[in-house]
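[job 4471] stage=fold_predict status=RUNNING
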Amino acid sequence: MRTLKEITRVSYFLALLSASAFGQASTNPDASTLPSQTSTITTSTQLVVVDVVVRDKDGRFIYDLKPSDFVLTEDKTRQNIRNFEVHSSSQPPLKPVTQNPKLPPGFFLDNTPVSDDSVLNILLLDSLNTPQSDQAYLQKQLSRYLDSAPSGTRIAILGLASRLYMLQGFTSDLSVLKAAMAHKASPQTSPLLSDPISISTDTATTSTLLKNSGPNTTNTPLELQQTIDNLSAFEIDSRSLNNRFRIQLTLDAFQSLGRYLSGLPGHKNLMWFSEAFPLVVVGDAQQLSSSTGPLDNQEDFQRITNLFARAQVAVYPIDVQGLGIDSRYSADKSDTISFNSNSYSQSPRNGSALESDFENMRAHAMSPETEEHAAMSRIAEDTGGHAFFNTNDFSTALREAVDAGSNFYTITYTPTNHSKNGAYRQIHLELTGASGGTTLAYRRGYYADAPAKNAQPAASSSSAKTPVDNAQRAATAYAKTSMSYGAPQPQDILFETRILPATTSTEAELVRGNLPNPKSKLNGPFRRFLVDCVALPAQFTVTQVLNQKHSGGIEVLAYVFNADGELLNTAGEILKLNMTDLEYFAFLKHPVSVHLQVSVPANRETYLRVGVRDLPTNRIGVIEVPSVAVSNLPPPPAALPTAIAAH
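[job 4471] inference complete, writing structure tokens
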């Protein structure tokens, strides 16, 4: 959580550096200034936060409850409630928003001003798992909701394709949100869906058509059957492979989204508009398998639900398939009716058989726990949200989700079980003397992971994946996607950057040390920009190793993208920290500052994305700036020295 003191300190440091052309006198403290070498014992307490929505039998939020009205248990052991707050959409936030300090032109800070007790709403438009026709209807429904959304509702709009895109940052200005929806690109086709255009078109497989081709084929029965079997195996394998890609892309996107939202205080409601997520969840939260994807997705799914829970994110999946009658069930279909993974044969169709097939199809459609919905239901339950299936009125479902996520109680407690062994802990809440029909929605548990459990790479040489392997892969993917154009800008590392043109003229060559994308075929002229970053040293992970050495690593990156999101050019520097006790103490006394120079194609619309990453943990802060915002600023009055913080 960002405090005003932290934000002010970063701005103060950068102001001092700017006043002296980013120069700074070095200090060499003597041993007398070092802290005493006496042994100390440090302890930490884990605070579990549970947001709970309590409604009566008529669906109305109950406002007048007290801590004594709740009984909270973890693994069936009674827990003492430490803090208790009530949040109502009819009342303003109790805590003021910490505003960023006013910055001079060319200065940027990676901090989103948010109140500690605010409610943020995220609309996630999932084109990866949704046919194109359903996306068009969804956009109309969202525009309808924005026409009547309550004033003051803070909303961000994100899109999911092969990765996450920030379509519109958090704002309570409904006109801005409406404009974002109006200018949103047309519905996208997902190449990984078996039917990317519409779920309602005929999806009869090639093997089925061949099987029903009748006597016109010249193949012998044995040859025909072998061809059918081969085609069937090919189609099943193709669908399975596509599903595996969809699963992994969705899990990676949720990982990035959870990390991004964890940098923002307060409660968040994630409205996930999707048709299906092909991950099969069976049993309780500790049992996860997939009939169409890799079995090791269990570790990813657990990590994501835990990340969402810790970030106070309640997930509200909204199935955009709706209640439409499947057009495949029509009078001219005389062979096979396919509904998702089930098939209902008809040859020939009579009244009773037709009615039976319709009932089977209807039962399948109305069941919220189909394979396609299982993971969506599970992630909603595990995070305290609610899944909406079988409705065509998405705007009403969205209104109900926002309302539920804006009226809740926040309960915190310190677990009596202090072990951090990664085991799943079940949370149970109930009301004393509650009347019939009262419902409570809250996250049902969490995984007791140790801090920085997965910070280091796996040491095992085995080719088999381990939980640490999966965590490292997820962390690496997170750092990579965080530097992608248009992606959410994480705030794990609070830093400030100054971006200014080096000169008023253009240059024919790239700055020495820049690494252009070989596929972009960059040609001059170029504008050279100076990128200076500063951050507080306490944010970075430094580990004490043998011989009283302190080790760590910091990476600073500047990426250049064109308006289509193509990476054009990169610049970067890695600070390898290998310090003695004396050097480490000096490191903590001064801000970390890094200077980069990057070439940007002149006379083209481009974007600069700057990131500061803590290498041991993969935590990263990111700022994205259109080059037009800084291209007309004057160059700095003096040349800048090299990085002052590299030890």
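[job 4471] summary: Residues 91 and 407 are 10 Å apart (CA to CA).
[job 4471] exit 0
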